[in-house]
Amino acid sequence: MNVLLHPDRLLPADPTTRAIARSLYASVADRPIVSPHGHTDPCWWGENASFSNPADLFITPDHYVVRMLVSQGIPYEALGIGEGARSDPREIWRSFAANYHLFQGTPSRLWLDHAFSTVFGLIERLSSENADAQYDAIAEKLQSAQYRPRALFDRFGIEVIATTDSALDDLRWHAMARESGWKGRVVPTYRPDSVVDPDSDNFGANLDRLGELTACDTGTWQGYLDAHRARRAFFRAMGATATDHGHPTPRTANLSEVEAAALFARIRSGKARDDDAELFRAQMLTEMARMSVEDGLVMQLHTGSFRSHNAGVHARYGRDRGFDIPVPVSFTLALKPLLDAVGMDPRLRLILFTLDETTYSRELAPLAGAYPSLRLGPPWWFHDSFEGIRRFRERVTETAGFRNTVGFNDDTRALCSIPARHDVSRRADSAFLAELVVTHRLDEGEAYEIALLLSDGLAREGYRLEQGDT
Amino acid sequence: MNVLLHPDRLLPADPTTRAIARSLYASVADRPIVSPHGHTDPCWWGENASFSNPADLFITPDHYVVRMLVSQGIPYEALGIGEGARSDPREIWRSFAANYHLFQGTPSRLWLDHAFSTVFGLIERLSSENADAQYDAIAEKLQSAQYRPRALFDRFGIEVIATTDSALDDLRWHAMARESGWKGRVVPTYRPDSVVDPDSDNFGANLDRLGELTACDTGTWQGYLDAHRARRAFFRAMGATATDHGHPTPRTANLSEVEAAALFARIRSGKARDDDAELFRAQMLTEMARMSVEDGLVMQLHTGSFRSHNAGVHARYGRDRGFDIPVPVSFTLALKPLLDAVGMDPRLRLILFTLDETTYSRELAPLAGAYPSLRLGPPWWFHDSFEGIRRFRERVTETAGFRNTVGFNDDTRALCSIPARHDVSRRADSAFLAELVVTHRLDEGEAYEIALLLSDGLAREGYRLEQGDT
Amino acid sequence: MNVLLHPDRLLPADPTTRAIARSLYASVADRPIVSPHGHTDPCWWGENASFSNPADLFITPDHYVVRMLVSQGIPYEALGIGEGARSDPREIWRSFAANYHLFQGTPSRLWLDHAFSTVFGLIERLSSENADAQYDAIAEKLQSAQYRPRALFDRFGIEVIATTDSALDDLRWHAMARESGWKGRVVPTYRPDSVVDPDSDNFGANLDRLGELTACDTGTWQGYLDAHRARRAFFRAMGATATDHGHPTPRTANLSEVEAAALFARIRSGKARDDDAELFRAQMLTEMARMSVEDGLVMQLHTGSFRSHNAGVHARYGRDRGFDIPVPVSFTLALKPLLDAVGMDPRLRLILFTLDETTYSRELAPLAGAYPSLRLGPPWWFHDSFEGIRRFRERVTETAGFRNTVGFNDDTRALCSIPARHDVSRRADSAFLAELVVTHRLDEGEAYEIALLLSDGLAREGYRLEQGDT
């Protein structure tokens, strides 16, 4: 018996509600996966090489998994991270298996069990006892052609997937995938943080490189903006329909051209004042919004994460090791300059994400329920979970409705978790809709229509994927 | 079959809990409506003229409806708002009907369906197909005497309704209603924002006018305070039992008389310093609280809305167009000066409202669960909904109990939604109480008593409506 | 019939879920009480004298009870508090009984009813009618040996209880209890606020006293730190396994030794600058964490309460009268200096508490789900309730799991409520776990294991009580 995946998982306890939810879920369970925001490695799609081993696939690169193990005293080195770390993947797998109980009650467990079961055919919960057997079973499958990235893409029913790519990236893997004759639709996303955020490593060199790539003079404000335009055009030509902006805060600004040019000059010449970096990021959000009005790229804003919270962990093990911790955020005043400038323009689409759930009902739903340019991204990161999705829908829907949201993002670099994450989302939304039906807030027929929108319709529409290059 | 109103709507899914909730709801469904805070137009009650057409009644003035349509790209002009706007109400109605699906899952839909069904006898959900027929049905009824404001007042079972009126208002419509021989109880509320907030339009002229109306010297601090006293007395004589204060923040101050007079002088003479406007509003809350101690008017404080967020919308379409967006608020330190001054005085009653739900359990319930002067207003604005009411009761009750709350406010300018809103509130409270009963946190007999309090008892008591002029 | 305690109280309404919850609860209902953080009076355990009367036991010292009565207009004096207060305990009891309905829907009622029923054998709900009879019944029992503190300790099944004690305390009552031959395990907790917080009353004199007690020179920074080390050693010798720190904010600092010594010198010499008191508290949290690394004492941090909010209440009736009101808190940046210094050290254990529930999912779960030194304390104070516990588990578990929490604290000075509080916690956790089981997020077998951890296992482990002096 497969103990990993109960067919009614995540559906409401009340029998009447569960029956409705089950039926709603069944209507969308097999819908294609539209994945407009994520972090799969473009190289997978370009090279289509086999994955090396179970630990590399499931443990080391997954910051959800790593941080939980670290939080209970397992050293990074035991997980294969850092200097002098353990290198035998089977040993890493055994540590993971011995501590698999730590994931009880977490979305990681749902995702992992789903992948173990549906992708690798395992039916027992991972433990020290079966660690070696499960390692062998996965490792063996990884060698077969059916477990290469493109085969998994097809098997998972992915219609389109977006990667997230530096503004300086040459998108060679995207080109390789397109030129290979493979039919899978993989599109890049323009992520210009490294050439927008003066606090990023090598910012000056990055701007020089931006100039080289575009033949624009990134020593001047207008040349710099033109360089962005050129790169955006390149990304669009490669299939991009969206940009993505990871900023510490949602602050925006709308300086005069003279002020903006002076600010740029101060930063470019290393004479930045105290607040200049933040002000520049703020100004650039408005500039990016203006470019989106021009070129139609959907703009995504992810804010509120304090990256690499622990200095020692950052120094020793690098970024993305599970130590990015949210801070309080407020959007209302922060977004006003941008929204005053272009917020009522129907050509702009700006999708907002938050790690501070207090903003759902207080700010985000009221903003998205008023501005035609705004949409709300799905629950993000720590909140991409059953309870997180429930809180999002409960707090957002009454003020913003369903159509000011954009369906689901899997947002992951863990390939095998993609179907699991969309499945959790479809189940959680079905549960929410069933609750509305059973309390007569929605007709059953309407619930089916909305379930379809939430599973893939709103993602396609919200990210303008119909209009994108196919 | 009427698809608009299921008799069990909003009641819990679990059959046992639903049976208890249904019975609790039945016990209060027909209780009189006590509406101590709202925005109906006094002119309706004074003149008792017919409403002009369905679009004017249901769409154009309802910022909940307008903002949702605007958020999905319908221009204000298509809704009859702004220069050169569409003027045919039937056309406006058709746009609304064609987009009625946008309100799925929102309280607006519950309110509208309730009004369409119970007030106008419609039984189908509004759509493009039936838009004209429903328009005609409503338009025809609006011409009959039974659909004039006072007839609706009686039909809705309204025991008393409070309007919200500028401190400078002559209350002529209230006088007209009283003198007409009509028995309906309509009372004004003293809302002095335009003569308390130095940032309001024409503040100086407003103070001059305040002086004229009261024969007080509003050029001096004491004369200005006396003018408030005089206007409050006038409002009381016209039936008011309450004041209402809409401030950006809940900040209060308790300056010495010398400091306060100097502050007033700076503001009156146009020599205000940076923080003076906010400080003056803060000081005036304490002054108003002191006057409430003297004259017994219940004080209401509504804070935390950033009004007219979009500059262009404000300039082109004016205020109250759906672009008031909440900001984070904190009461604990902000209210201390006022509460140190008069917070323990049993004669003061101060009712607090919030748009920042994080304050429910963190600040408001602890404050109201300690200070004898404080009561909590019901969920406000974006939170006046099923989920909003549930969150309020779940977060407030354990710390503040039921009796530190004041029942329900419909808070609306949409006359036909008044019964709908009270109905939602009674159903939501019945659902909450049933949950407490079924989990044995409350005896069933107690739940009936509390349901009665929440439906109208606490509103009457909380707003001192028994003591008011009848 | 006993109307006070339904056997299924707090268990979910859905029959399937309730059956699972009932069974989970049954498996832990009789587990020993491990109480690692609370405020029972050490004198009770040392002297083991009878409690004087029902009002002294249940009303006057219970700030939950007092504040609710005060909030509804009952003066402190009627509760026996303040100059010229009523002194007849029976009269105080009658006021309480007449207003017992105020506690409907609150945890106080659950706790009181549980104590009345299980400790004193009462079966009717308290009211004016039965006030005298219940008073007599309780008063009579209080005279018997079975109702002395140590007898209750045994009857309640307490395995270990921690008190909270000033760093300057001589722990004489703890010594008396140990020397009496009684087997009950009562341990002190090192609470150094009065010698760490420069804003506390008599801070200078407290430091002098600290010097006398330890023969350290508390006129110097190093002497002062040594004095802490000495007192911590004394507390450990007396059985302590933990320290507790009540700070207004969670701010920490990590100054150089020179800076810290200079800061100490400014404060000690009365030349503190504006921010020095806060900075000193911040620095001392890091120093305490370093000492915890050395001596293994578990560190608890309680922040975010604005103490004695009303000036008049504080002046007239003193501290702990129900007027401590929470303020917004943020941990992410505040804790960084401490965590950069020692946060990755496995020898440190720092347990975090909050009154600002917005930090659960935004900051605390991400922090505890990453740092090996961090654990989350249970819902605190206003949130130590059914809904509070539910919110905590729903917001924390998905990111931090179960094992980064430390079970339950009763945190009370109300002796008879201890079993009630642990019972509420066990029921609430059983309800939460049953919900996970019925939605197939957890296997039933796992739920039993976790129920055991949450009832007492994690408290014992989290507070290192196995390692403590027994």
UniProtKB/TrEMBL annotation, chains A, B, C:
InterPro entries reported for this sequence: Metal_Hydrolase, Uronate_isomerase
Record-given protein name: Uronate isomerase
Catalytic reactions on record: D-glucuronate = D-fructuronate
Keywords: Isomerase, Plasmid
Keyword Isomerase: yes
Gene3D superfamilies: Metal-dependent hydrolases, uronate isomerase, domain 2, chain A
E.C. numbers: 5.3.1.12
The organism of origin for this protein: Shinella oryzae
Pathway assigned in UniProt: Carbohydrate metabolism; pentose and glucuronate interconversion
GO terms for MF: glucuronate isomerase activity
Highest taxon above the source species: Bacteria
NCBIfam families: PRK02925.1
Family membership: Belongs to the metallo-dependent hydrolases superfamily. Uronate isomerase family.
